[in-house]
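Sequence and structure are kept together here, with a separate record for every protein. An example record follows, reproduced without changes.
>
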Amino acid sequence: MRFMVGVVLATAWAGLAAGQNSGLASEGRALFPRYCSIPYCHGSEGGEGRAPTLRGRTRDPGALRDIVVNGIPDTSMPDFGERLTENEVDAVVAYVLSISIAPPPEAGASVPSREAKPVSVDIESLPASLVGVPERGATLFFEASGERGCTGCHHMGRGDGVGPDLSAAKEQDPRALLRDILFPDAEDADRSAFFTIELKDGEHIRGIVQEESETAVRLHDLSTRPPVLRRIAKESIAKMEPVPGSPMPKNFGELYTWKELLDILAFLQGRAVSYPELH
């Protein structure tokens, strides 16, 4: 959904610059950690994270609101127009504008490292909602209904192996695993086998090429769940082009709750994984 901007936003910006409208900005500050500074998005209180820092930058209120509502296509920035109410959007925009006019750190000031740092957590002291359970994660991983489930593409002793083998996932940083699940395009990787194919009969196929000969192409067709291995004669192909980005779905952040993501991480890691470890 799109909301009206213009004079109202210009007035709001003027008020923020004068130190007014602090109530709305305070509401936005409470919403920000829940929607914007989750792992591998914007940093705490708008600081540097996987996504750009929001502090100390001049911003146009209308353009900022449009980004919050509609997202940025072909990036990890999702749209929040259907997730937040109009007032919540106003609050988030007000908060970002309030920190945008804050001066950047002085030269020579220490900057938090982006390197992964181990977090010591007492699992037993945390509520169950903040701790992933490997057994529940296994059920989710091997689920084969609708858009959910991982085993159609990945394998850990089972599965057809369309995607990478995840047997070594237990050796990885859980934050990196979460990033790869939620934002599969965040890291550069070899995507040379990901293609879209247009057949002469008009059919369009997006898939991962497994083998190519002089006469045919064998690929996993990603339009089905699980992907089906198909052989396509080259004489029936009108166009074949590589596809930028990862073939992995981009909507797992919507298909799974945070608790379910914790459970999946716990299964991949072979141990309980807690929410504090992801910060």
